[in-house]
Structure formats: structure tokens, C-alpha cells
Write a structure and sequence with these properties.
Blueprint lengths: L1 H15 L4 E10 L9 E5 L4 E4 L4 H17 L3 E6 L17 E9 L4 E5 L3 H12 L3 E6 L15 E4 L2 H6 L7 E5 L7 H8 L6 E4 L3 H13 L4 H4 L2 E2 L11 H16 L15
Parallel strand pairs: 6-7, 6-9, 7-8, 9-10, 10-11
Antiparallel strand pairs: 1-2, 1-5, 2-3, 4-5
Helix pairs in contact: 3-8
Length: about 280
């Protein structure tokens, strides 16, 4: 069908542009439903329909919201909807159709991205672990001697120059994790300000409790909200023990994975100063 080809073409274009999307397909139906089995549409991470339809109305609106949920969690789902508004059971929608429909929401997320703000020894070890896990990695630093392919062999982009200015140019979405580990913590606060209001999945900043307290107080005085600061994982990492760059890197990547899969874990930030 022409409609199917249009959906597939839009999906292909989205994948080429590293855009996170989901297809929503009717896989079974019972009774009266807006459209039949095989009808599908493509939506982006904000719920915009890029191509196709499953019949419009309340079913389509609910499916779009469920697709947003799935994309954000990188989780495909099979969901059944009851289209009888008078029904007392199931996932009920206020429709008069009276039938039932099952939708398969298939997520196509862009490759997970990791931005390392700083190219120190800890960042070097993080990059190696993140590469094994399949992240698309970018490293920012102003030190030419640290930003080399010998130290970061599995990194897609090494960006030399003003860290804050270059960070401002980066595309940050819900599939991006950011680790702030600048040399001597010189640019940590400035870097945090750049990404604090972004849609990043994870923002982590290395540092002691005293350093975190100072940074947060500075940002509160500048007008940032407690709610904005509360999403920052700092002190960074899980409480696994160890002090070497390798051990710190492991605790940080373990924390990012725990956030990704929404798992309870012994986060170090839970023991920080409460603001």
C-alpha cells in the first residue's frame, strides 16, 4: 500500500537523521474499530505524527502519548485499548466504537550519546567503557596535549577549544548523557549552566560535597531553581568504593546505566548536602 511505503520512507529518513521515533501499528482488532489490522503511523519523541494514521480521535491521541513514554524509556510495548466507554475493565477510552484494538509501539531510538566535558584521566577511562557499551562519544577540552586519538581511540569527536563555547553548540536531547569533569574543576559551574535546562537524560558533575555545595549556592544566587539543580547527579557515580580513575569511571558508567533502565542504585548524590 502507498500509505505503508510513506511510513517506511519517513522511518528511513528519521533513522538517517538520527531522530528518535516510534511506529504504532494495529496488530489485532475486535468488533468496531476506527481502522483495521496493519494500519500504522510514525511519531517522533514529542508525539508529532510524521506519517500515517490509525484512525484519529481518542485512540490516536492516547497512542501518541504512550509512544512518547516508550521513546523516552527506549521500550517497545504491546498495548490493548478498550474502545467501549461504558466498559468497566481494561485500558478504556471514551469512544462509542465498542470494540477492542491492540497496538504495537516499536521504538527506534537514535544512538545514545555521551558528552565528556573534560579530557582528564577519569574521562579517558569513561570513554573506553562507554565505547564498549555502544555510546556515540564527544570529548571537549582546551588542552591539545590531552585531546588526542592516542588517549581517546574510540571517540567520534574530539573538540578542541573553549569548553563552554563549544558545549553551547552541542545538540543535546533526551538520549544524551553529559559528564562534567573539567581540569581542576575550572569550568564545571559554567558547563553546568549551559546544560542545566537541556533535555539531557543524565547530567553528572564530579566533585566533593564541599565543591557541590559551593557550586549549587552560586547557581541559586544566580536565580536557578532547586528543582533544576536536583536533577544533577553530583557527587557523581554509584557508591561502589575505590579511588582510581578506572574505579571512578566504572561507578559513573554504572550510574548512567541505572538511570537508563530506571533501576534503584546506591547513588552518591543521595548523601550530598541538601539545599
Amino acid at each position: 500500500m502507498l500509505e505503508d511505503r510513506k511510513v517506511l520512507h519517513a522511518l528511513n529518513e528519521s533513522l538517517k537523521n538520527s531522530k528518535s521515533v516510534a511506529t504504532i501499528t494495529i496488530v489485532s482488532s475486535e468488533g468496531s474499530t476506527p481502522r483495521g489490522v496493519g494500519s500504522s503511523m510514525l511519531v517522533d519523541e514529542e508525539g508529532n505524527i510524521l506519517e500515517g494514521t490509525i484512525g484519529g480521535g481518542a485512540l490516536e491521541e492516547k497512542a501518541k502519548r504512550d509512544a512518547i513514554y516508550c521513546i523516552k524509556r527506549n521500550k517497545s510495548l504491546l498495548i490493548e485499548y478498550n474502545l467501549d466507554r461504558d466498559s468497566k475493565t481494561g485500558n478504556i477510552l471514551p469512544m462509542a466504537c465498542g470494540g477492542k484494538v491492540s497496538l504495537f509501539i516499536k521504538v527506534y531510538n537514535s544512538q545514545e550519546k555521551l558528552i565528556l566535558v573534560g579530557a582528564g584521566h577519569v574521562a579517558e577511562k569513561i570513554a573506553k567503557m562507554a565505547s564498549i557499551l555502544g555510546y556515540f562519544i564527544t570529548v571537549l577540552d582546551s588542552r591539545e596535549e590531552r585531546l588526542t586519538s592516542n588517549l581517546f581511540p574510540d571517540v567520534e569527536y574530539l573538540i578542541l577549544g573553549d569548553i563552554v563555547e563549544n558545549l553551547e553548540k552541542m545538540e543535546v536531547d533526551h538520549n544524551t548523557s553529559i559528564i562534567i569533569v573539567t581540569h581542576g574543576h575550572k569550568y564545571d559551574q559554567d558547563a553546568l549552566e549551559v546544560v542545566l535546562k537541556s533535555n539531557a537524560k543524565y547530567i553528572g558533575m564530579i566533585g566533593s560535597k564541599n565543591k557541590v555545595r559551593t557550586t549549587f549556592n552560586n547557581l541559586l544566587e544566580k536565580g536557578y531553581l532547586k528543582e533544576e539543580l536536583s536533577k544533577v547527579y553530583t557527587p557523581i557515580g554509584l557508591d561502589l568504593g575505590g579511588e582510581t580513575p578506572e574505579e571512578i569511571a566504572l561507578s559513573i558508567m554504572a550510574e548512567i546505566q541505572a538511570v537508563k533502565y530506571e533501576k534503584e542504585a546506591p547513588h552518591l548524590y543521595k548523601s550530598r548536602w541538601e539545599f
